[in-house]
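Quick one before lunch.
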Amino acid sequence: MNGDLYREQLLDHYHNPENFGVLEDPDIDITQENATCGDTIHLTAKLDDEGRISKVMFEGHGCVVSTASASMFTTEVLGKTPAEIEAMQLPDIQQMLGGVTLSMGRVKCAMLPLEAMKKGLQKLAKSA
Ligand code: ZN
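Model of the zinc ion complex:
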């Protein structure tokens, strides 16, 4: 495991995040905070006719780990069903981030976009 390479990859996403912004007329619109670090994420997403995630965007401000995780997450979850996202756990996020082992303090940062998405999907299911 090359630690520097991993950090560079995360920094790259941090400085040039993918899918940064807000979707118009989204199916999911949720803001989630990670109080321990001060990260905030505003996630908007759309589902296609089959109920799969078709587009995700995020905005907010956070540390390198939460921002990089959100940047990769918005691409990672495309085409997934709500059930598939509900089943995603920390190992999936670690793998998405390049197989890193996160310290306890960073786990919440890395999990923030997934937790926001899960919460948003639950909200959507209730309103349907
Ligand atoms: Zn953080």
